[in-house]
UniProtKB/TrEMBL annotation:
Residues 135-147 have a biased composition (Basic and acidic residues). It comes from the Bacteria. The chain crosses the membrane at residues 55-73, 79-97. InterPro entries: DUF3040. The lineage of its organism: Bacteria, Bacillati, Actinomycetota, Actinomycetes, Geodermatophilales. The keyword Transmembrane applies. This is DUF3040 domain-containing protein.
Amino acid sequence: MACSTAHLEVDVPLSEHEQRLLEQIERALVDDDPKFASTVRTGDRRQKARRKVQVGIGLVVVGLAVVLGGAVLPQVLVGVAGFLVAFGGAALVVLNYKNATGAVEAGAAPGPAGRPGPGRGGKGSSKARRQPLKNRLEERFRRRYDQ
């Protein structure tokens, strides 16, 4: 059996000194080139995801109201349109809920940048869940080739 070492990324918080240095670098960047700094500056992703969740909830409410309107009026197309709006809103909520709350899947190890890894709970080893699909496929091929 071949023994291989997998490259795993671990998030380590910055020390106070490193945080001060990073803030100094950011201020220098803003002072030197404010236009570039504004284009590369990323907002709070969690706040954007929360906003999408709020919009999704609003779409669900509006969609359900339209569905009820379509039921009161004998208009099938209005009801179908309301269902589609509600379904789209629900999809928006489901897709952004994890990012909005910072929730981590049960059994999923944190991946790069604190995001959960690609694994799903219960399948395979925890080591395999932290690796990208390409690495897992390559490792599986190597094991078959070595046998």
